[in-house]
Target: Aminopeptidase N
Amino acid sequence: HAIKRRSDYQSPAYVIQHVELDIDLYPHETRVICTTQVERKSADQQPLVLDGVDLQLLSVRVNGADWTNYVEKEQTLVVDGLPDAFTLTIETQIDPANNSSLEGLYKSGDAYCTQCEAEGFRKITYFLDRPDIMAEYRVTVRGNKSAYPYLLSNGNVVAKGELDDGRHFVTWHDPFPKPCYLFALVAGDFDLLSDNFVTASGREVALELYVDKGKRERGYHALDSLKRAMAWDEQTFGLEYDLDIYMIVAVDFFNMGAMENKGLNVFNSKYVLADGQSATDDDYFHIESVIAHEYFHNWTGNRVTCRDWFQLSLKEGLTVFRDQQFSADMASPLVNRINQVNVMREHQFAEDAGPMSHPIRPDVVMEMNNFYTVTVYDKGAEVIRMLHTLLGVQGFRRGMDLYFERHDGQAVTCDDFVQAMQDANQHDLTLFKRWYSQSGTPVVRASGEYDQQARQFKLTLTQHTPATADQAEKQPLMIPVNTELLGNQGTMVQTVLSLTQAQQTFVFDNIDQAPVMSLLGNFSAPVRLYDGQNSSARQHIVMYANDPFSRWDAMQTLYGDYLHCQAGSAGEFAEPISTAGIVELQRSLLNQAMDSPALVAEMLCLPSFETLVQQAEQIDVDALFDARNALLNQLAEALEQDMLAVVQQLPAQAYDYQQNQVEQRRLRNVLWLYLGRLDQHQAALKSHYHDADNMTDCLGALRAAQEGNEQTFDQLMVAFEQRWQDDPLVLDKWFGLHASAPRKDCLSRLDLLSGHKQFSLNNPNRVRALLGSFAFYNPKGFHAKDGSGYRYLTDYLKRIDPINPQVAARLVTPLTQFRHLDSERKSLIETQLHRLLDTPNLSGDVFEKVSKALG
Ligand code: HT7
Ligand code: ZN
Model:
């Protein structure tokens, strides 16, 4: 298992500017002829080393003549004795029907499709599989006409016709040079939804969405989302689409969410298909956001791409930031921000604190697929967001314009991006660049000193980044701190402080009273904050802060401190709030619920168990789980009438995915999470499920029952399965609910579920729904004291790894992030990690994560 280092980058010894692919599709014997124009760039006569995995080589020709001066070794083809410029033709055979890794060319059900990012193109043909080789592609796809009426690839159709034996062909040409990871091919029979979009400059673009037969009605939201994204990118960044056609294909077997292949996006059907009956408001939201994300890649990723894979955040951090801005403009900016911050605190902080810790631009990689992480994506987006804060909307836009002006058509680095931002704004970003090279979550501490006579307030901020698994030494970063100082009458000061040293004091004059500090508003930097304030200061923020995000955040801190005190895992903070204090705060929130349903709904939610785990050095799993559960029960009992009153005021409406309704449904279902715990409301909870005309409320009822009442849960789950048993995408919700239910017999239930007719270890969505939900979101079952949960997951990982290493490597994460657990559990986990490591032929993907976890 070789290690690659960012510092070892060398420009390519040979380049390829033209590629001609001829792909003749057969399930087990697909023939690929790849003809390239190759040019030597290095002065020495080193051989051409092409990447290739699981290929059967049939022939090599140079300038049309057979070539024998080559060897196949260690997943490469080394060709020697070559002229300076030549035409290379390589013929290989591959077996898509037996490709369960879902990388390269594979079968998704009846259709053929490809996934080439990061290094999957080498499973299709021998090639220089690196993103800085950008070429123009001409692709001919051949296949049986009745089974595969659609033969798709990137760009525009330039030829098509009939062949013998019921076969046909289509030839595609993509005029934009691209790296091979953006190559795509899809062949199959689909329902097609067609539309069009007229760009700002008046060009008409055909939009085509391909979905499984019979699913056409579920495609409209995705298509509408695409049009909104296209218009938004024109308005916000002046970026127009470039080809005449934009295609999206939804497939059922896919390792991630979607893929931005040039002009031919391939999507996990989970992020395309939706109607009110079968999809929740969250599903609608995520579809819009993933559709937009892939579309935005056309500029940030495709037109300007990465020089090497260490630069992945160049396109992913930036594109996530762009899709977040889009989503904020389409719906509630506040709820969006809360959800993003929850992802950071729940998953990214955990990654920073674990064995896979890495900067947003990693330095060392064993398996690239392991670096499509919350750090590269979400922390990467936070870093871009800080630049946006620092430079302002217009300054950021100037930087983007210069970036495209300089680098369109190139493969570049994160430094190139920051340089464009710097040059466009004459703003020195030298210090800021440390965010790209330093891993870990900085800790910011705040303390205040008020001088009544001088009417002066001094705020001292310190920063310290604890050592991480990958980096011992840390330096101070540039940290923007949104600051609000609150007095009795409300906000006295609102500003952004720039913390650049280990310790800095900021002086505020003309302050009439000792203020309450509300810091890090809108999560202005991806850090942990300790401000040392007591619970009455936090309650003051909850009631009076100008920034609604800060009100939510103060409430989260109050809940968190309270729960850690109950569970014996309290860290450094003053007296927690009393139970009665939380009840009264929630009561006052319930009184405001009809005016601000979105904010109140979020403020009524306790931090997730997973977020709480990240807040303490060491936790007692059972005590923390029980404390959270006990508080939810107490709040339900104390506020039953107040909650019922709000539920009754919320209007009943026919389902529409529309902002007002979304917020009201969210509030109603949060309230059901409380009321569902009370025996007297079980009949009403069942009606909430049965009367619902939409999946959001059905699932809301199921979640409430899952937490609140086993009998109701069992009854509703039977009804759900009866209704959706033939629709695996919808049934994933049911698998997930079962797997995350804190039940004593959860392992035997998992056994039963894995025998369900819809379950398959070959389908990543099914595996994530069942085993992912168990390992990530069933703390009671997964962390069972006898280690049975750890053993159970490990048994499955040993079976999944040979089928699909990428899926196995993602699923192993909960076994590697054990830092906050007690020593007994740590040792039980280590036993399982050793079992995994001893597995014959363990993939590099799983090996990298497990070996790091074991140190
Ligand atoms: N850029 C895409 C990444 C991706 C991917 C990576 C590894 C293995 C399979 C994959 N499928 C998609 C998705 C994106 O960020 O837009
Ligand atoms: Zn992306």
